[in-house]
Amino acid sequence: MFECDLKLVRKHNLAPRIISLTYEAADNAIVAFQPGQFLSLQFPANAISETPLKRSYSIVNISPHPQHNRQIEIAVTLIDGGVASEYFKNTQAGDLIAAKGPMGNLVLPEKIDKRLILIGTGTGMAPYRSMLHQLKTMLTAGLKVEILQGARTRDELIYQQEFLSLATEYHAGYRACLSRQADAEITCHEYAGHVGKPLQQLEPDPENDLVYLCGHPAMVDQQVSYLTELGFDTRSVKREKYFVSGKNKAK
Ligand SMILES: Cc1cc2nc3c(=O)[nH]c(=O)nc-3n(C[C@H](O)[C@H](O)[C@H](O)COP(=O)(O)OP(=O)(O)OC[C@H]3O[C@@H](n4cnc5c(N)ncnc54)[C@H](O)[C@@H]3O)c2cc1C
User: Fold this and answer.
1) How far is the CA of 242 from the centre of ligand 1 (A)?
2) Domain at 80, CATH number
3) Does the structure's ipTM exceed the value 0.90?
4) Contact indicator for 53, 46 with CB cutoff of 8 Å
């Protein structure tokens, strides 16, 4: 567990409204994590919020040795008028932010004897990106993996090349599900619409599948309902919702 100030070392655009931020501990300490976990950042009061607020962000690094890791990378969707989003728009290399982590259970068990279905929307692909090293090892050992990446348009498909490489080099299934791309195609790697139909086409089976859901709460809720009807329980569906409505949000 770490609780420290992180210093921003790099910031760049990943997609039109999505940025990548790389931090390291201000005292250069180890910031260990398990792929799939997130950290909590505390934002100073700003023009939108008079009091400091906390927000969570999935760790997106691919680290062969995450227990000896010294940098933390996150991918952030910028929300107009969002407290954290406004901070991220303006932050620059060298800025410090208070962080605590790692947290969260959206991690892979050591052994998986089922097919693994990973579904994410937007930056909800971040936990799976940090799992790429583990996934390659598991695919090589015979694990079956299906990945559904949801986004509105093709240019919002963060890390798509890395997931496509996993599909072609390690024989994982991969499909980009584009809800607002006028020329979206229906191919083995692309689908015009939300993730629901492509998930149904995988014929999920509670006895033989382990499903992970991450990102937009409506997507997570819809797919949990669908999978629960099929007989999935909390052990066979892991989930992480990325935000709640502004009114109900805990500060
Ligand atoms: C466990 C966990 C992990 C998370 N990981 C990530 C991550 O890796 N990357 C990331 O970008 N976010 C992630 N989030 C969401 C993140 O914590 C913030 O909620 C998000 O950055 C918005 O914060 P904000 O202060 O800018 O907006 P707020 O001021 O909190 O919200 C402003 C308004 O925008 C709405 N809103 C918030 N997020 C979205 C959205 N994505 N799309 C549409 N409307 C939205 C709110 O409901 C509210 O009405 C995660 C959340 C959780 C709980």
Assistant:
1) 6
2) 2.40.30.10
3) yes
4) no
